[in-house]
Amino acid sequence: MIEYLFKVAGWWVLSIVKFIIVPFGMILKPGTGEEWSWIETIVVSSSGAALGVFIFFNFGQFIFDWLAHHLKTKAKKFTRRNRFLVRLKKRWGLMGFLFISPLISVPISSVIGAKLFRHDRTAMPKLIIAFCCWSIFLSTIAYGMKQIGWSF
After folding, report:
1. Could you tell me if residue 29 is inside a domain?
2. What's the structural domain count of the chain?
3. Domain of 55?
């Protein structure tokens, strides 16, 4: 039982760091004697991503609040990064950001989400739900690949 919990914790850490590969790694890992079901894969990858979103969204918001309070800010410059973030927020809004967030990673998308959508109380729950939906989608693809004989 404790060994199982350590394996789950390892997949949680990996889902926080690089979410998109976890469902494929859990389902398509050949020769390890370890079988993860479709539902286990969804639960483990979703809960790991939810934990990461919770931590990094709140941590990112804390960092930005602390910096705004303790540092004297100069006039804001329009850098390439700032223009990109403003363009992303204006063109696609929260829904577009939720769509691309798993392609980035949990920590980076959470911190960017805290920066762009910190005044939207639904941003963090929506980000968690988006990662859960992506987990279902990616786990289904990985399970389908396993059924036709693909492995890594």
Report:
1. yes
2. 1
3. 2-147
Residue 150 phi, psi dihedral angles, 5° rounding: -80, 145
pTM: 0.83
Query: Which residues touch 25 (CB under 8 Å, ≥6 apart)?
Result: 11, 14, 152
Cα distance between residue 94 and residue 45, in whole Å: 22
Q: Does residue 12 form part of some domain?
A: yes
Residue 137 near residue 41 (C-beta atoms within 8 A): no
* 34 vs 37: CA distance, rounded Å: 10
Report the candidate in 98, 125, 122 with the shortest Cα–Cα distance to residue 112: 98
pLDDT at 63: 79
Q: How many helices (H) and strands (E) are present in the chain, helices listed first?
A: 6, 0
Integer Cα distance of 54 and 43 in angstroms: 16
Q: Which residues of the chain have pLDDT under 50?
A: none
- The DSSP result for 53-75, as a single string, is HHHHHHHHHHHHHHHHHHS---P
Residue 152 lies in a domain: no
For residues 93 and 86, what is the distance between their CA atoms, to the nearest angstrom?
A: 10
d(CA 51, CA 24): 20
